[in-house]
TrEMBL record:
Encoding gene per record: LOC111019073
InterPro entries named in the record: Glyco_hydro_28, PbH1, Pectin_lyas_fold, Pectin_lyase_fold/virulence
Native species: Momordica charantia (Bitter gourd)
Database matches in SUPFAM superfamilies: Pectin lyase-like (SSF51126)
PROSITE patterns: POLYGALACTURONASE, PROKAR_LIPOPROTEIN
Protein name: endo-polygalacturonase
GO biological process terms on file: carbohydrate metabolic process; cell wall organization
Molecular function, one GO term: polygalacturonase activity
This enzyme's EC code(s): 3.2.1.15
Enzyme class, first EC level, given as a word: hydrolase
Protein family (similarity comment): Belongs to the glycosyl hydrolase 28 family.
Length: 468
């Protein structure tokens, strides 16, 4: 990091320390250095070119094509092609350098299935056609209550293509307790799940109209998702776009997500999550959490969102935890984010309660600290452009704001703080003075600036689902 930046920031932290009495300059310098150095690498160049995949095995060991049609798949959208997919998988998984092909032009009806590894080396799942789920919840196999297409125990596998995975979710949404209050709250399947796997690449697919979550990455490491499109109506309940749980070293890059819930959600035991070039909306924004439900422990660390556009979402960048939980969220950087008509652009909510009944007041909480918001701009539809609603007993700390400019087209904006500590430098609009004072609100008329930094130009065995 530039020496001038470090010295200037140190001076600013000393000033902040005098105001709040709770900031340790050396520790915060280390924290910001860590966040600055945690960057997203370039896109992998080892994804297989679909046009170059041959249909035979050569003496040199070229790719071996396993077309699901060759295993008696019909592809008319009506006939049950589940057995054909299972047989194609068994053959492809046991054959080195194979390609399991779902060909273009077909619509394949497939029931809930787990595709298990480990498999032979260099397996590619090439989806060019459409895979569609049965649309009747009453006929769903109860053994697969939360999964539709699940891939587990894989290593070095590539999923790619211009095809579609369609969850046929309309009837599931109609039966959700969030749309039909007379119905009980219960889980529904995730369209695509990658579980207990490593070195996975997913590129180019469209996942749409899932019964609940669209794409879950669970208990996995070294997963890269690029140019994936997720689509569902804005009123479809619990249809998170990409859900990351118990996973490390995950990169989500150049993805366009439109859903009825979080575009991206990151939950317990996840670390090293990097998101770049994300388009989100409609939806509930990009969220860490929820964490801590039912007095559970939640831990999420080292998360970066760099470059995103959110339009007409209910939240922008959000951290949400339930009362009564434990654990921590720390070392998070949200930067280079543009928002358009977002209801809650920046929000930390430690009183999250996604329940048909009110939640009990509790003193324990997931600790939230070392959260940086940098280069964030745009418009909001509510007066609280920034909201830090933190626990009385476990306050939020080391919240850093830099170059934040949020406006409301038809009124003034404010910052709400409760039990939150931190500081801002550069232009911070609306003011976030409440982070270091007893005031619960800061008005938009005052901008928080630190003289030393005004001229500084910074460089730009079951998966646990905690919500129904």
């Amino acid at each position: 990091m530039d020496k001038f930046f470090v010295l200037s920031l140190l001076g600013m932290l000393i000033v902040a320390c005098g105001v709040s009495g709770s900031i340790e300059p050396d520790g915060d310098i280390d924290m910001i250095r860590e966040l600055e150095n945690f960057d997203i690498g370039g896109e992998d160049d080892d994804v297989v070119d679909a046009s170059a995949v041959p249909v035979w095995r050569s003496e040199r060991g070229s790719k071996v094509l396993m077309n699901v049609d060759s295993f008696n798949a019909v592809g008319d959208g009506v006939s049950d092609d589940t057995m054909a997919f299972r047989k194609a998988w068994e053959t492809a998984c046991s054959t080195s350098k194979s390609v399991l092909l779902v060909p273009k032009g077909g619509t394949y009806l497939v029931n809930a299935t787990t595709f298990k590894g480990p498999c032979k080396d260099d397996l590619v799942i090439q989806i060019e056609g459409t895979i569609v789920a049965p649309d009747e919840p009453e006929k769903w196999d109860p053994k697969f209550q939360r999964q539709w297409l699940e891939f587990t125990k894989l290593n070095a596998v590539t999923f790619q293509g211009d095809g579609v995975i369609d969850g046929s979710g309309d009837k599931w949404w109609a039966e959700s307790c969030k749309k039909n209050k007379s119905r009980p709250c219960k889980g529904a399947p995730t369209a695509l799940t990658i579980d207990s796997s490593s070195n996975i690449r997913v590129k180019g697919l469209t996942i749409q109209n899932s019964q609940q979550m669209h794409f879950t990455i669970a208990r996995s490491e070294s997963v890269r998702v690029t140019e994936v499109r997720v689509s569902a109506p804005g009123d479809s309940p619990n249809t998170d776009g990409i859900h990351i749980t118990q996973s490390t070293n995950v990169v989500i890059q150049n993805c366009k997500i439109s859903t009825g819930d979080d575009c991206i959600s990151i939950v317990n035991a996840s670390s090293g999550i990097k998101m770049k070039g994300i388009s989100c909306g409609p939806g509930h924004g990009i969220s860490i959490g929820s964490l801590g439900k039912d007095n559970s422990t939640g831990i999420v660390t080292k998360v970066v969102l760099d470059t995103a556009f959110l339009r007409e979402t209910t939240n922008g960048v959000r951290i949400k935890t339930w009362q009564g939980g434990s654990g921590y969220v720390r070392s998070v950087r949200f930067e280079n984010v543009r928002m358009e008509d977002v209801e809650n652009p920046i929000i930390i909510d430690q009183f999250y309660c996604d329940s048909p009944t009110s939640c009990e007041t509790q003193t324990s909480a997931v600790k939230i600290s070392q959260i940086m918001y940098r280069n964030i701009s745009g418009t909001t539809t509510s007066k609280n452009a920034m909201k830090f609603a933190c626990s009385d007993s476990v306050p939020c700390s080391n919240i850093v704001l830099s170059n934040v400019n949020l406006e409301k087209t038809d009124g003034t904006v404010e910052t709400y703080c409760h039990s939150a500590q931190g500081f801002g430098y550069g232009v911070v609009h609306p003011s976030a003075d409440c982070l270091t004072s007893s005031d619960k609100y800061s008005a938009a008329s005052d901008q928080t600036e630190v003289p030393e930094l005004v001229e500084l130009h910074l460089p730009t065995e079951h998966i646990v689902h905690t919500e129904l």
